[in-house]
Write a structure and sequence with these properties.
The chain has 311 residues and is an alpha+beta fold. The chain has helices at residues 2-18, 35-44, 58-62, 87-90, 106-125, 141-147, 194-198, 215-221, 243-246, 266-273, 281-287, 297-310; strands at 23-28, 73-80, 96-97, 130-133, 152-153, 159-160, 168-175, 204-205, 208-209, 237-239. A four-stranded antiparallel β-sheet has the order 1-2-7-4, sandwiched between helices. Strands 3-10 form a two-stranded parallel sheet. Strand 8 and strand 9 (208-209) form a beta hairpin. It catalyses: epoxyqueuosine(34) in tRNA + AH2 = queuosine(34) in tRNA + A + H2O. Residues 177-209 form the 4Fe-4S ferredoxin-type domain.
């Protein structure tokens, strides 16, 4: 039996590597007891802003067996998206978008890989019951990745991998297959406070994020007008924000991704070159077709740009 578990574990990790995932870690599918009070307090403080969906499915967020009955393992995966070049630094634009949004929406790219992953396991091992997730359900991705040793949750609340920093998409397979588990690693943030000191809206305190002050939240999740208190504090970010990652010393180890779908389209580079002067509804449709930026719609992106112009 133990040999079978070891063989299956090796197969899972080999499949992850074959499909292009940079790191793979495994945890036992069980209730996240330590996270329950933290999540409850964070919600009670209203630190989730107007993301009311965060209040839903409290039990499911903490217990993977409520998402997949009979689940035995959580397979955590990291997929690199660090770009070859920083558009905001290289082009003469006043505006910036988060690096994860340069190419095709990661949900599409990674979800396809996860489906293939599950199919391959089924074909090699036999019928496995499970579900795949990429930022699309009440799964505490960073906590599972930390539990499986893929990194630690840093002071900026992002998962930091000791070998390659934090520019990763996180994904999971929750499956009813028993596997060998990996243990967590220690926290290597030390006394560094660069992410806290560099956040222009004071959204970060050590190991906690007030999402209602986070530039990513303000430019993507918030559907209302951006509060006036944030004028002159957005530092040109029109969609998302990378500040707390850009200043993190661990990201000096970031490596360029090898996923063609994440490379920016020439139309996006032209938009940066022209300082966004050409942005119309039609240009938005062309430039951001299949992009994560579509989440804001043209109206949301225009709201962000207008707010930046006032600053």
């Amino acid at each position: 039996m133990n040999n079978q578990i070891s063989n299956n574990t090796r197969l899972v990790k080999a499949t992850a590597q074959k499909l292009g995932f940079d790191f793979c870690g495994i945890s036992k599918a069980e209730f996240l007891a330590e996270e329950a009070p933290r999540l409850e307090n964070w919600l009670k403080r209203g630190a989730h802003g107007k993301m009311s969906y965060m209040e839903n499915h409290f039990d499911k967020r903490l217990d993977p067996t409520k998402l997949v009955p009979g689940a035995k393992s959580v397979v955590s995966l990291l997929y690199n998206y660090y770009p070859e070049s920083d558009l905001s630094a290289e082009e003469p634009s006043n505006y910036k978008i988060a690096k994860y949004a340069y190419g095709t929406d990661y949900h599409f790219v990674i979800k396809d890989k996860l489906k293939t992953f599950l199919q391959e396991l089924n074909s090699e091992i036999g019928a496995i019951d499970g579900r795949v997730f990429v930022d699309s359900a009440p799964v505490m991705e960073r906590q599972w990745a930390e539990k499986s040793g893929l990194g630690w949750i840093g002071k900026n609340t992002l998962l930091i991998n000791k070998n390659q920093g934090s520019f990763f998409f996180l994904a999971e397979l929750i499956i009813d297959l028993e596997l060998e588990v990996d243990g967590p690693i220690k926290d290597y943030c030390g006394t560094c406070t660069k992410c806290i000191d560099s956040c222009p809206t004071d959204a970060i305190t050590p190991y906690e994020l007030d999402a209602s002050k986070c530039i990513s939240y303000l430019t993507i999740e918030l559907k209302d007008n951006i509060p006036q208190e944030f004028e002159n504090k957005m530092e040109g970010w029109a969609f998302g924000c990378d500040i707390c990652q850009d200043v993190c010393p661990w990201n000096r180890f970031s490596k360029k991704h090898s996923e063609p779908a994440f490379s920016p389209k020439k139309e996006l580079i032209e938009l940066f070159n022209n300082n966004w002067q050409d942005l119309t509804d039609e240009v938005f449709r062309v430039v951001f077709k299949g992009s994560a930026v579509k989440r804001t719609k043209m109206s949301g992106l225009k709201r962000n740009l207008d707010f930046l112009k006032k600053s």
